[in-house]
TrEMBL record:
Transmembrane segments: none annotated. InterPro entries: DNA_brk_join_enz (IPR011010), Integrase-like_cat_sf (IPR013762), Integrase_catalytic (IPR002104), Tyrosine_recombinase_XerCD (IPR050090). GO terms for molecular function: DNA binding. It comes from the Bacteria. Keywords: DNA recombination, Plasmid. Gene3D superfamilies: Intergrase catalytic core (1.10.443.10). This is Site-specific integrase. SUPFAM superfamilies: DNA breaking-rejoining enzymes. It comes from Parageobacillus thermoglucosidasius (Geobacillus thermoglucosidasius). GO terms for biological process: DNA integration; DNA recombination.
Amino acid sequence: MHTVQPIKDREKIEAMKKILRASSLRDELLFTLGINTGLRISDILSLKVGDVRNAKGAVERFEIVEKKTKKTRIVALNKKTRRLIERYLATERPNARNDEPLFRSQKGGGAISRQHAHYILNRAAKMIGVMERVGTHSLRKTFGYFAYKQGTDLAMIQKLLNHSSQAETLRYIGITQEQMDEVALKLDL
């Protein structure tokens, strides 16, 4: 296994969405859901259509038991992600039953594989010129990186990612020593 990196450039994120959208809304949703929730790919791929809809059929938030930690997590969905899920279900999966995989393989009724998800994301990243290693875990790392850059408390990001220490979270989201040095150098009291 090779270490993958977060995608740290918003323009590249938007370019990836555009490339993925050209392939299918499913692929764009896979990427968008990952970078906006911080869920592991195993949890994303295990989602059923009924998991993302509430009892009234609306898309707002959902509850998941994480495969790795066995912890229950309530996942709030931002407006952009909710709209994309609704559009995907309406256009590409209009007759989907609640017990069907959200990310259904085109080669059968099951969910796409982790390997296929990696292929989808890696191909799109290469097409837009991302030079760093990108994989399915890049989605989760991108979520953490942008949450941090937007000023979210590191302890909160640590909790969302279920990390044991803040140092682990900083390493995980790709905060380098140079970036930490830059904070001290810019501080001119």
